[in-house]
Design goal:
Elements (H helix, E strand, L loop, with lengths): L1 H15 L11 H9 L7 H10 L4 H13 L3 H17 L2 H11 L5 H20 L4 H8 L3 H8 L1
Helix pairs in contact: 1-4, 4-5, 7-8, 8-9
């Protein structure tokens, strides 16, 4: 189980680097739960903080966990990772990732707010013109639930 593998790696890294639990991010109880394998979830942000405090990249941390999970040497895990990445590249994943970045489905909060404000104004304008919620949704190409949210 990944939580158990993470616990083993954390304890080993902390001992190897001669660090106390206080050096780990968040509260001592959270660090204890991670090292005990009783914490069920860890966010990506916490994983990054944890890795930084242990002076290791998140990827290296995950490789070490995977080596426990798969009962393989960590360098063998890296070899499999390289092959997996080569296969993903061969089917066009790199280009798809770049396209996703360009089309920016990852919108900043400010941009998202700007888009929401624009939709809110458009819904208000069409509502004032006497359009129904269904007609507004169709005219703007947004869901009826979005129209409902902006209808007020």
């Amino acid at each position: 189980m990944l939580t158990q593998s993470l616990a083993v790696v954390l304890r080993a890294l902390r001992k190897t680097r001669e660090l106390t639990q206080e050096r780990l991010p968040s509260s001592r109880s959270y660090a204890f739960a991670l090292e005990a394998g009783t914490s069920k979830n860890i966010s990506l942000g916490k994983l990054r903080e944890l890795s930084k405090s242990l002076e290791i990249t998140p990827l290296a941390l995950m490789v070490l966990c995977e080596s426990i999970e798969s009962e393989q040497d960590s360098l063998d895990v890296i070899g499999k990772l390289k092959e997996e990445l080569r296969q993903l590249r061969s089917i066009g994943l790199d280009e798809e990732i770049r396209e996703e970045q360009r089309s920016s489905s990852l919108v900043s909060k400010a941009k998202a707010r700007e888009i929401a404000d624009s939709k809110r104004l458009a819904v208000k304008r069409l509502k004032e013109e006497g359009k129904s919620r269904k007609e507004v949704a169709e005219a703007l190409g947004i869901s009826k639930s979005s129209v409902q949210r902006f209808w007020v």
